[in-house]
Amino acid sequence: MVFRLSRLVALFLGLTAAAHAHALKLSVTEATYNRDSGRLELAVRLFADDLEEALTKDSGRRVPIDKPELLAPAASAYLRKHLKVRSAGGEVQSLSWSGAEVTATHVWLYAEVPLPGGLVGATFSVTFMQELFSDQLNSLQLRDGEFKQNLIFVDGTGEVTVRPKR
């Protein structure tokens, strides 16, 4: 009897843990500067269930992530709203939607943005999921050849300017 009870407790705890599988609220944006095109190529990884909730809240209607015809316009608008880029000269840069890839647990959103002058001096703001979670952490991993920099955005971070490495 004790053995069965302990198995039931273990099963319950396992199911509870699975329901809260990603207690860490995190997005990762990989941003690679393409010197040939002068564009920053973006790949944004978000938890699928969180993105579906955010898109539904943002649009006022359910946006199932497994329906590409509904996901693309909603995710593109969400991306533009929550990832802001300014060139080193201070000009706001417009994101161009490239597409999305849905996996069992994550959604990858792809976009490009012109970035005249490259990464150094450019300013970024990343606010994914902060309308849902006060403990959301957004990581922006910047690359330009050998230059690499990771910017972290939490609620209230605002804009961050890329500085040259010392």
Draw up the topology in text.
Blueprint: H1 2-19, E1 26-34, E2 39-47, H2 48-59, H3 68-82, E3 83-86, E4 92-93, E5 96-102, E6 106-114, E7 123-126, E8 137-144, E9 147-153, E10 160-161
Parallel strand pairs: 1-8
Antiparallel strand pairs: 1-2, 2-6, 3-4, 3-7, 5-6, 7-10, 8-9
Helix pairs in contact: 2-3
Low-confidence stretches: 1-20
User: What's the structural domain tally?
Assistant: 1
Query: Which oligomerization state do the chains in this entry correspond to?
Result: single chain
Rg, alpha carbons: 19 Å
Strand composition percent: 35-45%
Instruction: Let me know the number of strands.
Output: 10
* Helix/sheet category: alpha+beta
Which whole number gives the mean pLDDT? 89
| Helix and strand sequence | HEEHHEEEEEEEE
Helix content: 25-40%
With helices defined by DSSP (H or I, 4 residues minimum), what is the helix count?
A: 3
| Major β-sheet profile | 6 strands, mixed
Which overall shape is indicated by the principal axes computed on the Cα atoms?
globular
Report, as a whole number of angstroms, the end-to-end distance: 65 Å
Spatial arrangement of strands, main beta sheet: 5-6-2-1-8-9
What does this structure look like?
The structure is a single chain. With 166 residues, the chain is an alpha+beta fold. It has one domain. The chain has helices spanning 2-19, 48-59, 68-82; strands at residues 26-34, 39-47, 83-86, 92-93, 96-102, 106-114, 123-126, 137-144, 147-153, 160-161. The strands form 2 sheets. A 6-stranded mixed beta sheet has the order 5-6-2-1-8-9. Strands 4-3-7-10 form a 4-stranded antiparallel beta sheet. Helix 2 crosses helix 3.
